[in-house]
Amino acid sequence: MVERRVLGHALPGLLLLVLAAGTVLPLAALLGRAFLDRNGGFTGLGNFVRYATEPGLAVAAWNSVWLSAQTTVITIVLAYPYAYALARSAMPGRAAFRLAAMLPLLAPSLLPAFGMIYLFGQQGALRGWLMGAELYGPVGIVLASVFHALPHAVLLLAAGLAAGDGRLYEAAQALRAGPWRRFMTVTLPSSRYALVSATSVVFVLVFTDFGVPTVVGGSTNVLATDIYKLVIGRFDFELGAVVGVLLLVPAVAAYGIDALARRTQRASLSGRSVPITAVRMPVRDTVLFLFCAAVAAAILGVIGMAVWGSLVRFWPYNLTLGLHNYARLLEDGDEFRAVANSVVLAAGTAAAGTAVAALTGWLVARRVGAGWAQGAIQAVAMLPVAVPGLVLGLGYIFFFNNPANPMHGLQGTMALLVVCSVAHFYTVPHLMAVGGLVRLDREIDLAAQALRAGPVSVGRRVYLPYLAPVLVEMFGYFFVNAMTTVSALIFLFNAQTRVAAIAVVNLVEGSRFGQAAAFAVVLMVLSLVATGVQLAVRAAILRRQRWRVR
Amino acid sequence: MPDSTGGTPPYLSVQGLGKHYGAAQVVRDVGFEVAGGEFVCILGPSGCGKTTLLRLIAGFEQADAGTIRQAGADITALPPERRDFGIVFQSYALFPNRDVAGNVVFGLESVGMARAARAARVAALLALVGLSDHAQKYPSQLSGGQQQRVALARALALQPGLLLLDEPLSALDANVRAHLRDELRGLQRRLGVTTLMVTHDQAEALSVADRIVVMNAGRIEQVGSPSELYTRPGSLFVGRFLGELNAWPLAALEGSAARIAGARLVLADAPATLPGAPWLCIRPASVAVGSEVEGRENRLDMLVASATFLGDAVRLALEGEGLRVLADVPFARLGRIPAAGEAMTVALPAAQLMVLPGHG
């Protein structure tokens, strides 16, 4: 049967080739480059030695580690009670608090950094709060990074805390354990995996973030800014590749730790778990409410400052409010094109990414196709989550700039930016598709087969309607992330393909903060609109699919 | 292998079928035949390979050895969609996004039947399973029994020559199960569709099947009609699997008597030679108790160890003369539940005693 052969080998093979071209091969090109000299000869660790011995470079590696560690500790300490309050307490306004915590996800990481400048910079409104410390440098990086990383940590921890087993609490209560003992013996151990996961995600996020140190890093060098300076400023691709490898180290380690923790977690979770119902505890809930209110106020305050900054005519000298900075975006052809490019990139990434991820998710979840292909596709699809955007982008230069590459023609096109963004954000949507389809009974495929329907026919008649709401979520995820990302694209854009998030970086480099803030706000608003549309479409689909109602 | 088809060629014939996953041999040298219109149950404990056997016949798995012939044609290597069968799964595997009619019509759409013909066929099928009033409901709105009927109607939609049922009743409540079992049997008789059902429930197999294939550890243990298997099991395994059984290791034959630990019991027809690991067996319902023992051989004086009320009968556990005997006595005849420690004489009628091989 032709369909069988196509689905068994040809389709998975093709998808594997596409995924490999988007992830594995550029990464291999980058790794290779780190061990070659300028003329392409093998130098072993020569480049690494050069990096370690050149004055001023290695200190960036230390800064990255130390600042990421500080940020991680502060973020987790803030995020855990916040997530606990969302998932377990009966405090009022939980939905609103959840929304407030998610807000920074919709903007590039530069946005909280702007907020920091307007609050604590040389002319900042709350300058005195730093007690004489300098914002630009370690303080600014840590402060802004906490805001950038907080939503990720809250999301992971809240999900982990929500998935606890209610029976354990009843058992503990029956054994006369008080609230504190219950927290220490049940809550904390059961959220261990979420803690490990959140810790590693936050560390890697901060370690590889480009936006925050660019805006508030001052003269403090970190790896993420060094790689940019080395490649774009000095054209030293070899040292750039070395920094790329260094950026990859914690990401790969975190990936391994996460996989390990997940394995032990699976053993401790039982299918018979009973969902937890939040209990009202007035004192605890009041304390948590005050805490969450403070954190949410800080988030809104920082974002609000950035919005305010975008509305100010010329900060800090002329504080009259107006749409001056936004008008400039419309008038200037280059800037307007950047916004348009962002929309094109986000829509293209979302469309292409959703289609491909739905296919790979389907192949893996429904075990369509040969066994070798399923394993290989799953492995390649999981790779991007461990690859920082900067590393991926640099890999793209090495791979696609090579004249010997038949895909060399993509170089400098919007298509390459789309490919890169799809690859960069691939893992989560792929897992969404797998998770959505794996829930359907395995015997559904056999039943369809017995009813003479091939995999494609079942896909169209059963899986597509079943997966529809998940597809909308996947689309939204790709869209918002492609809209706000900087790191992977910073090496790939040119004048024609420059997107708004990159334009923000360029404006910051030119100290045009007002306009940069306006750009960032526009991106955030577009992301907000996209998220709103996504939620509305998803709700409409769920309303129409009456069969989901129990 | 007894030829039950009486000269006409069998509709389904399985020969020397084998299947292994890695080192585990799941199905070994399995062979049996099914006549057209027959209802055959494949019965065995979980892990005995019965579901794998069904999946081999459906084509969801490929056999390592042996052949499967259906209606005279060798189908061993055909993919499922080119075989002629309908299947009902344990989970029913209904399409959640399609209503009852949408599930039943699925196969008809696959083969490109015209719209009007489809509608008529779906209506007929829904009437057949008594779901005409529920055509627009979705699976999540149906009870387990109703879902099972939808799965059955869907499996019958393409008028398959062979109906495969994979533990179709095991997910249902006991009452619904008994009711649907009878309905399934009636429907199968009316349609005359050759049916192969996998189950681990011996009561289910005994009540619906024309013939039963008993499997154990990947092999066929015995094939026969329900009454044959129940009254003349070929092995200790089959005897025990089909119902409660008294079984004692048989030490030796002494003429027409069997010696077991603590007793010497007369047999009606003693075998000429003993099988390997022989056991002497009798069904609890065949044990004579009280006034029934008058004039019978193999009488034993025992004490009641415990009595369990089963509704229509009382199961007595009796001990004495070094033996432990289970006896099922109709409650109507006892009129009361004997107390533990009560003395009682039982008889093991020679005609009901069986000598069975205990392998496996």
Explain how this protein is built.
The complex is a heterodimer of chains A (about 550) and B (about 350). By secondary structure, chain A is mainly α. Chain A is about 75% helix and about 0% strand. Chain A has one domain (about 1-265, about 275-550): Orthogonal Bundle (MetI-like fold). Chain A has a two-stranded antiparallel ribbon. In chain A, helix 4 (about 60-90) packs parallel to helix 7. The model of chain A has no long low-confidence stretch (mean pLDDT about 85). Chain B has a six-stranded mixed beta sheet with strand order 6-7-8-3-9-10, sandwiched between helices. A five-stranded antiparallel beta sheet of chain B has the order 13-12-11-14-20, with no helix packed on it. A five-stranded antiparallel beta sheet of chain B has the order 15-19-16-17-18. The radius of gyration of chain B is 24 Å and the shape is elongated. At the A-B interface, helix 21 and helix 22 of A face strand 6, helix 2 and helix 4 of B.
Please give the structural blueprint.
The complex is a heterodimer of chains A (550) and B (360).
Chain A: H1 2-22, H2 24-34, H3 46-53, H4 58-88, H5 94-102, H6 110-120, H7 138-162, H8 166-174, H9 179-190, H10 192-207, H11 211-216, H12 223-233, H13 237-268, H14 282-311, E1 312-314, E2 318-321, H15 324-331, H16 333-365, H17 371-382, H18 389-400, H19 414-424, H20 427-438, H21 443-450, H22 455-484, H23 500-509, H24 513-544
Antiparallel strand pairs in A: 1-2
Helix pairs in contact in A: 1-17, 2-13, 2-18, 3-13, 4-7, 4-10, 4-14, 6-7, 6-14, 7-10, 10-13, 12-13, 13-18, 14-24, 15-16, 15-24, 16-17, 16-19, 16-20, 16-22, 16-23, 20-22, 22-24, 23-24
Chain B: E1 12-21, E2 24-34, E3 39-43, H1 50-58, E4 65-70, E5 73-74, E6 85-88, H2 100-110, H3 115-128, H4 144-156, E7 162-166, H5 174-191, E8 194-199, H6 202-208, E9 211-216, E10 219-224, H7 226-231, H8 236-242, E11 246-254, E12 257-260, E13 263-266, E14 278-282, E15 288-289, E16 299-309, E17 313-320, E18 323-330, H9 331-334, E19 343-347, E20 354-357
Parallel strand pairs in B: 3-8, 3-9, 6-7, 7-8
Antiparallel strand pairs in B: 1-2, 1-4, 4-5, 9-10, 11-12, 11-14, 12-13, 14-20, 15-19, 16-17, 16-19, 17-18
